[in-house]
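User: quick one, sequence for these tokens?
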């Protein structure tokens, strides 16, 4: 099977498999003499071998047990387990937890489409061709695929599947399932998949255990790993279940867990598969130790916290600094029955902030957007609401070497200067950073700046409100689902009203919130996205013009900027980490100077509280919290709690 490709003789498409055979020659339809026939045949054969040799040269490469964007792999082919696991960790027990903050219900087990609210934990049902190593920036190692072979021209990759790979129903995982997965996600999946897979030109099952990808365009560097990490869907399952609809049918995968029990709005439970085909592979030694994973759902964060105290579930990550500073002193913490811990996080800290929807005409002027940002007093917020626990986010790539700082380097200028006429002057000065207030909550100096910007943008004060030449009043609505965010938004609204902007807060239920986000029905909203250590084509989902009108995309600000598109292309084409870092810093400068968001805050750690019945490896993975994949249930500790 071929995705978006021309049909051709499968056996004549040369590959790194080194399989060769003669293709039956076509007979000429015109009657010609023997000498002409001989000359024609010789030319035909010569041309055939020239084409075949060229194609083989393009495809041939080295079969490897792993892939990395710039080629480096920490673990050799003979490795037995990752360094951040305990390979002999006991199996069993249950981990019950709160998953993503603010997710209060689910109505589907289909996490691949826009429709519906998918249950948490579904990723543990599925295997992928290769699996990420969380102590390396971007390396993946063989899971369903034993080996991968990059094509020499950089335009493709071939994966060689393990014969023993099985779905939970005992059926084989075949190359045709990989083809079905890529084809389906690219044409019917949610925008994230469609954008990421846009440059996958063809995917074909050479045989049951060999799948070959060919890519198009110039931004193909990350695609081998991108397709390697995608969950593999069973084609046969979707012959009876519609992929394009939400469903509560038990999903089928080949991963370490399977669905056990659920009740929408209350919980979903996954059971570890004792017959999991890959449990003894090096990439899985010491991983997936819990016998059950259970995700609990609560409508209210307060009720959720009280349930933790009562022992109704085991683990919770705290995202509210005030609660972390003031509430975790209950008796079970004092006696050591509940452990409170801060786990370091070396990933880029993400892009949390108020995203400003530039699809709205009133928000298309960068001066208006900058003025809005000046009304947010982080210093006051951090001191009075967060107990000083946070730092101000300044970059889309905060807490990473990709953050732009100071003046552009010579290498950055080489990328930016050709676009000088299309960029704000601020791009070529010190990197734009959020203003630092006096911490009063209403810094007059910053608000004066905001007033001046609004005047310049054509929104003068009339009767104490900002009104343009057409008589339209500048009104803004903050969209949120979280009651706890009102304490952050309301002081900002007061400042906005001080400078003449009529701002309001709209709190909706989580389901309505998600739907309004998908359709971009908001002025400002809060969200957080985390960037990869090796960013590439996925940046299109957040910042590219192609995703601005794709409903359900992560381009919340509606960015349509040809310079941003060009820099994303340079990032995706970078041949070294140095080139990547330079291009990413340049992109960071452009985004920050355009004021597409009002940056919030970050901390490079996870605050968690859990009942003391678990143990963890001595070494924590650098780039993952590690709880679900590497911790285990400790019977001795649990018995003391009883």
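Assistant:
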């Amino acid at each position: 099977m071929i995705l978006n490709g021309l049909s051709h003789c499968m056996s004549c498409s040369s590959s790194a498999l080194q399989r060769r055979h003669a293709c039956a020659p076509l007979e000429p339809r015109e009657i010609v003499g023997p000498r002409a026939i001989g000359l024609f045949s010789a030319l035909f054969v010569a041309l055939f071998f020239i084409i075949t040799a060229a194609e083989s040269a393009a495809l041939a490469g080295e079969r490897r047990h792993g892939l990395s964007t710039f080629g480096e792999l920490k673990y050799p082919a003979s490795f037995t387990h990752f360094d951040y696991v305990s390979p002999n960790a006991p199996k069993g027990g249950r981990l019950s937890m709160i998953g993503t903050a603010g997710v209060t219900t689910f109505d589907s087990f289909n996490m691949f489409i826009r429709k519906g609210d998918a249950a948490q934990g579904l990723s543990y049902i599925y295997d992928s061709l290769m699996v990420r190593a969380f102590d390396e920036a971007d390396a993946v190692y063989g899971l369903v695929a034993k080996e991968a072979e990059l094509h020499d021209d950089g335009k493709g990759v071939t994966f060689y599947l393990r014969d023993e790979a099985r779905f939970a129903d005992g059926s084989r995982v075949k190359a045709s399932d990989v083809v079905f997965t890529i084809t389906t996600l690219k044409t019917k999946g949610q925008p994230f998949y469609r954008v990421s897979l846009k440059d996958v030109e063809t995917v074909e099952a050479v045989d049951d255990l060999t799948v070959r990808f060919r890519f198009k365009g110039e931004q193909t560097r990350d695609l081998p790993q991108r397709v390697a990490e995608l969950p593999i869907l069973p084609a046969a399952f979707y012959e009876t279940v519609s992929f394009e609809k939400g469903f509560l049918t038990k999903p089928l995968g080949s991963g370490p867990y399977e669905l056990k029990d659920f009740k929408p709005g209350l919980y979903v439970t996954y059971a570890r598969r004792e017959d999991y085909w890959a449990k003894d592979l090096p990439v899985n030694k010491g991983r997936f130790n819990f016998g059950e994973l259970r995700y609990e759902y609560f409508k209210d964060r307060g009720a959720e916290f009280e349930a933790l105290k009562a022992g109704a579930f085991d683990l919770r990550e705290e995202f509210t600094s005030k609660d972390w500073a003031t509430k975790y002193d209950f008796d079970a913490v004092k006696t050591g029955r509940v452990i409170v811990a801060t786990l370091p996080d070396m990933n880029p800290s993400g892009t949390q902030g108020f995203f400003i929807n530039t699809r709205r005409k009133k928000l298309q002027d960068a001066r208006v957007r900058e003025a809005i940002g000046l009304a947010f007093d982080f210093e006051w917020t951090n001191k009075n609401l967060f107990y000083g626990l946070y730092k101000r986010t300044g970059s889309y790539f905060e807490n990473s070497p990709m953050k732009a700082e100071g003046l552009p380097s010579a290498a950055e200028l080489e990328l930016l200067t050709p676009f000088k006429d299309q960029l704000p002057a601020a791009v070529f000065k010190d990197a734009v950073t959020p203003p630092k207030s006096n911490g009063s909550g209403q810094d007059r100096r910053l608000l004066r700046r905001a007033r001046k910007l609004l005047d310049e943008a054509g929104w003068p004060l009339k009767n104490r409100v900002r009104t343009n030449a057409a008589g339209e009043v500048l009104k803004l609505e903050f969209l949120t689902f979280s009651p706890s965010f009102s304490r952050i938004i309301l002081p900002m609204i007061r400042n906005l009203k001080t400078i003449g902007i009529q701002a309001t807060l709209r709190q909706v239920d989580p389901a309505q919130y998600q739907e309004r986000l998908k359709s971009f029905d908001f002025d400002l909203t809060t969200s957080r996205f985390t960037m990869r250590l090796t960013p590439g084509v996925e940046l299109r989902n957040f910042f590219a013009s192609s995703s601005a009108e794709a409903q359900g995309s992560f381009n919340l600000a509606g960015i349509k900027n040809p310079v941003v598109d060009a820099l994303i292309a340079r990032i995706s084409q970078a041949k070294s980490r140095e080139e990547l870092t330079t291009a990413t810093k340049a992109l960071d400068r452009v985004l920050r100077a355009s004021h597409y968001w009002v940056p919030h805050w970050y901390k490079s750690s996870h605050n968690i509280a859990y009942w003391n019945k678990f143990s963890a490896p001595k070494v924590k993975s650098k780039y993952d919290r590690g709880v679900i994949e590497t911790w285990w249930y400790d019977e001795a500790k649990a018995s003391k709690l009883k």
